[in-house]
Design goal:
Elements lengths: L2 H8 L13 H9 L1 H12 L2 H6 L9 H8 L5 H11 L4 H27 L4 H19 L10 H4 L1 H6 L7
Helix pairs in contact: 1-7, 2-7, 3-5, 3-7, 7-8
């Protein structure tokens, strides 16, 4: 198991933090609403986008099962990772999807609220927030798409440090 790569993947959770509608305080407030946070986490984790990133692995998680695992846990993040490992995800695949879903959950919910305040319907706000989420994820995560390789990936140092054979 490539645990070094998995640990480095989880650092990208912060890629979704910004100075606007998903700043540290607002992201923390979203995380404090554990029930909604883990629903959003499961929605993102089970999305076609992340299933594709996991090389077609079709295993899904149910938000109510995930919530029962993290509810009352001293460390809900550790409890969620332990649950995902137990149901069969490998560390690198879980870390990539976990980082995107973990960081993206608060951003997605906060962006929905931003769009609703701007007068969009709930459905329109969810759709626009999802598009924003995907754009940020593609832009900031290690990508195999040539048009989406980050400056960090393309740099000489990035090619050396990020070459863990889970991304090109």
């Amino acid at each position: 198991w490539n645990s070094r790569s998995a640990v480095l993947q989880t650092l990208s959770t912060v890629n979704f933090i910004n100075w606007g509608d998903n700043n540290i305080a607002k992201a923390a407030a979203r995380f404090a609403d554990q029930k909604q946070f883990w629903k959003d986490f499961a929605f993102i984790f089970n999305s076609d986008m992340l299933r594709q990133r996991r090389a077609g692995l079709k295993t899904t998680i149910e938000s109510n099962e995930l919530m029962s695992e993290v509810q009352g846990a001293v460390n809900p993040v550790r409890a969620a990772i332990r649950y995902l490992l137990r149901i069969g995800f490998t560390p690198t695949k879980i870390a990539d999807s976990f980082a995107i879903a973990m960081g993206g959950s608060s951003m997605y919910r906060n962006r929905i609220k931003t769009y609703e305040k701007q007068g969009y319907t709930k459905s329109e706000a969810e759709q626009k927030a999802w598009m924003d989420f995907q754009e940020i994820a593609e832009e900031t995560q290690q990508s195999s798409r040539p048009d989406r390789i980050s400056q960090q990936q393309a740099s000489v140092l990035g090619r050396l440090i990020l070459a863990f054979q889970n991304t090109p």
